[in-house]
Amino acid sequence: MNTTSPSVRSVLPASILLALIGWGGLFVLMNTVAPIDWKPLWLFYFLAVLAICGLALPFIAFLNRRFPGNPPATHAVIVREAIWLGIYFPTLAWLRIGGVLNVLMVLLLAVGLMLIEGLLRFREFSQWKP
């Protein structure tokens, strides 16, 4: 059984692919679509999730390798944590467009997502058999 988290090198291909699709798609979207149409807004959120996940994946892998847990994080845990970050920032953009974003909401959303991830990791810890 593997006793360490996956290396940063093992998540780089997925990270590069997600970042290229996300940031490339955002570049094309921003340069070709008129800002008055609301339909591409959902494409913006989707591409933003991909772009942020692509950027966050190596960073999350590094943190999980540097500060190992018990049981160690798997590829699935690293991807899930990157997806949480990928969802967090476009959600902040969506709330900002709606005019309801404030500092308290930023903090509460972050704490809520960290709580969900902590409970998921706690569940994994309780089911781990060495």
Characterise the protein shown here.
This protein has 4 helices and no strands. The chain has 130 residues and is mainly α. It is flat. The mean pLDDT is 90.
Helix content: over 70%
Structural class by sheet pairing and helices: mainly alpha
Mean of pLDDT: 90
- The N- and C-terminal alpha carbons lie at a distance of 9 Å
Low-confidence stretches: none
The radius of gyration computed from the alpha-carbon positions, rounded to a whole number of angstroms, is 17 Å
Helix-strand pattern: HHHH
What's the main sheet like?
none
- Taken as a percent bin, the fraction of beta residues is under 5%
Q: What is the overall silhouette?
A: flat
Report the strand count.
0
Number of helices: 4
List strands and helices in order, with pairings.
Elements (H helix, E strand, L loop, with lengths): L7 H25 L7 H27 L8 H24 L4 H25 L3
Helix pairs in contact: 1-2, 2-3, 3-4
Short description:
The chain has helices spanning 8-32, 40-66, 75-98, 103-127. By secondary structure, it is mainly alpha-helical.
Structural descriptors:
130 residues
